[in-house]
Structures are given as C-alpha cells and as structure tokens.
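Q: My labmate handed me this sequence with no annotations at all. I'd like to see what the chain might look like in three dimensions before we decide whether it's worth expressing. Could you predict it?
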Amino acid sequence: MRVALDGTPLTVSSGGTRRYTVELSRALESAFPEDRFQLMSDRTVVDPLRGLDRYWWLGGISRALRRARIDRFHGTQFEVPLLPLRPRVWTVL
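A: Here is what I predict for the chain of 93 residues:
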C-alpha cells in the first residue's frame, strides 16, 4: 500500500507537530516495511529525512496523489484535503 503523510510540519525548524510527523514516519516505515510512505507538502523545504515534493494543498494534492498512485492520505496537522474516493485519516492532538 502507498500512504502519503502531510509533511507540512517539517517546514518549521521545531515544534511538537514537527516531531510527531518525523517520529510517525519513522515508526510506520519500521512497522510496515512492505508499504511505501511518502511525505508531501505544498511547500518546498530541504528535509534531513528525505526530500519533500512541492504540491498544492487544495486542488493539486488530489492530482499529485493520483499521479503517485497513493492509496491513503494521513493529515498530520488537524486537517485533510477533500479527496473523493480515497480513504484518509488525520491526527487530532
């Protein structure tokens, strides 16, 4: 399965949501090695874990997810885009 995580929290230098996103990504990759996890954001940053792609949050994210053949989307900071016919989950802290 291909899962996209919202990597927008990684565009700031510190903070709880940033730390949560980093640790969630690492834990998911470790626990589910057969699945593919990809961080996506509408901002371009240099990430020490892996590069973040540049996508648009509202309209462009659906196109980007289709192109990358993403099966699920995890919103890491309290929101998810409208993704018709695509399962999604979000974190509420």
